[in-house]
Amino acid sequence: MSASSDVGYHAQRHARWHYGEVAFWLIVLACGFAFPTRYLIMTDILRLALFAMSLDLILGYAGIVSLGHAAFFGVGAYAAGLLALHGIVNEPVLALILAGLAAMVLGFATSFLVIRGVDLTRLMVTLGIALLLEALAERFSNITGGTDGLQGIEMQPIFGEIPFDMFGKAGFFYSLAVLFVLFLFARRVVHSPFGLSLRAIKNNPLRAAAIGIPVNRRLIAIYTLAAFYAGIAGALFTQTTAIASLDVFAFERSADLMLVLVIGGTGYLYGGLVGAVVFRMLQELFSTITPQYWQFWIGLVLVVIVLVGRQRLHRWVLYVPNLIIKQVAGRKAVVAVPESDA
């Protein structure tokens, strides 16, 4: 087997669906039926997971660090809010796509600034873009509503048939469907030759350019795609909450996103999804126990993850279940052995 065919074989094998992935999505779907009183927080987790996945596309696969990813989230949120508020596009799915395209245009326009620098420069540029958009949104308060945000947003039924209810059931399944569709597309992208070239650029951009990979064009493409995903997440936020305020551009939103990926891991699409679940659950738990100091406990968890290591924690968490499984399997093996006639 040649080297190229060997790489292709391993790439195809890695791209196949595994039982754990199917189980993950079935569990997420089952949560919608098992916890009917928790639709709002579960919808929030889905939005955060999509937002985290958008950052993972550029950070985990292309090595582009960003502290201003909330810029695209905010553009998508305001675009969806304005489209609904003024009755320009009444269908939520179509408005969702248009909001994502608006963020995508911004991502393409700013990508030329981002790809020129190194990590520290990119951090400052992306943060500056988010702060600039927040200032512009506050300046043009006649359009954005300023500090009060957009008032009177009323979302039309999805496809004209499924209305958004006050309990959040429609919003949860709507967000889950959007997340799953975009996850499928992102999964296809990262396992394609395009995705492999992104990994090569992340590992060594000079070597990638030497073997003929168009580094800048690849980075612009993935940055634009990530902006589209973040815009969709922002539009979901507006459509499921009927709120769009300056908070969507806040630095804390981008910072939380980095924390999510620290918990879940980068360079693996499920890292953002799992990290979003863990982060929101920890936030909910600690804010219930100690409402004033919940940020301290989340910070402590992050320090432990960094010092101990995610893989080691994973082994520790699974130690007891694996021990039980081994004992049960050992007992079954003993029972299965027939006794001798002697």
Automatic annotation (TrEMBL):
Top-level taxonomy: Bacteria, Pseudomonadati, Pseudomonadota, Alphaproteobacteria, Hyphomicrobiales
Membrane topology category: Multi-pass membrane protein
Pfam families per UniProt: BPD_transp_2 (PF02653)
Protein location: Cell membrane
GO cellular component: plasma membrane
One Gene Ontology MF term: branched-chain amino acid transmembrane transporter activity
CDD domains found in the cross-reference section: TM_PBP1_LivM_like (cd06581)
Protein name: ABC transporter permease protein
Residue spans crossing the bilayer: 22-41, 48-73, 93-115, 172-190, 220-246, 258-281, 293-309
Keyword field: Cell membrane, Membrane, Transmembrane, Transmembrane helix
InterPro entries to which the protein is assigned, alphabetical: ABC_transp_permease, LivM-like
